[in-house]
Amino acid sequence: MAEHLTVRHASGQGVEDISLRVAAGEFVVITGRIGSGKSTLVRGLLGLIPHQAGDIRWNGVTVEDPASFLVPPRSAYTAQIPNLFSDTLAENVLSGASEEALERALRLAVLDRDLHELPRGLETPVGARGVKLSGGQIQRAAVARMLARPAELLVFDDVSSALDARTEAQLWEGLGRELGSACLVVSHRRAALLRADRIIVLSAGRKVAEGQLSELLRTSPEMRELWEEGQA
Ligand SMILES: Nc1ncnc2c1ncn2[C@@H]1O[C@H](COP(=O)(O)OP(=O)(O)OP(=O)(O)O)[C@@H](O)[C@H]1O
Fold it and tell me: InterPro entries, per this entry (predicted)?
């Protein structure tokens, strides 16, 4: 879906000449150190920041305006620091999706266990004027919102602040079991790396390795270091 993509911030930093593909149903992890360009790459890919060179494609066809095209039912995204609207938790998760989707979305996002702690459960007002949720709860609510409507491609930018390692493994396993969507996941966690069909390793804005975990652990020093430092 990206061919030779270059995305630079005003500072000049960013990612250079990255090509990546995600096939239907595939689970692809983008990993790398802090500041290696993982968020810049997914934000550029989704058209949330402009790219300076390269091409974004969907089923082989160039996408002229990714920001308006890569939305449900094609693609959905959870940002590293998402926002909730000033409304109830239920409305934030549903925002127009069907009620039947709610229970599954809450369960898959591992938010169901938090509901009894909230003063009014799903009817608790959240967002700027509502009850203050933890950073993890906000991120899980955003994941639940993403899962409440079908999308062929789910993009997660680092959910590790929302989920402990075991719960993150549960999320990836649940997605695999219950949804057929392709996943593009930014993560440094072993839970994600172990689940990955393919891993893309970034370093200083460049793709330095790509492949399956076992192969990368043999061939990529950067992957080996990341794995050994892994906090999972
Ligand atoms: N909005 C911005 N404006 C200017 N430079 C930025 C901006 N966001 C990121 N950068 C720079 O671009 C480079 C890549 O950052 P990016 O956030 O994509 O890395 P990352 O791998 O996602 O890191 P993290 O693990 O912290 O999320 C870094 O050098 C960073 O300082």
Answer: AAA+_ATPase (IPR003593), ABC_transporter-like_ATP-bd (IPR003439), ABC_transporter-like_CS (IPR017871), P-loop_NTPase (IPR027417), Type_1_exporter (IPR039421)
Q: Is the CB of 160 under 6 A from ligand 1?
A: no
Assess whether the C-beta atom of 34 lies below 6 angstroms from ligand 1. Answer: yes
Give the span between the Cα atoms of 167 and 14, in whole angstroms.
31
In the DSSP assignment, the letter for residue 84 is -
Say how many Å lie between the CA of residue 37 and the centre of ligand 1: 6
Name the residue ranges covered by the structural domains of the chain. 1-74+151-232, 83-149
Question: Looking at the predicted structure, is the pLDDT value of residue 179 above 90?
Answer: no
Query: In ligand 1, which atom is closest to the CA atom of 158?
Result: 27
Q: In what order do the strands lie in the sheet with 182-186?
A: 75-78, 153-157, 182-186, 27-32, 198-203, 206-211
Mind listing the pLDDT tens digit for each residue in 68-103? 999 999 999 999 888 899 999 999 999 878 888 899
Does the pLDDT of residue 161 top 80, yes or no?
Answer: no
Class of the CATH-defined domain 1-74+151-232: alpha beta
Task: Please state the atom number of ligand 1 nearest to the C-alpha of residue 80.
Answer: 27
The pTM of this model reads 0.93
Using CA atoms, how far residue 131 sits from 12, 34, 203, in Å, is: 39, 31, 39
Residue 7 has pLDDT above 50, yes or no: yes
Residue 132 CA to ligand 1 center (angstroms) comes to: 27
Cβ–ligand 1 contact at 219 (below 6 Å): no
Inter-axis angle of helices 165-178 and 100-108, nearest 10:
140
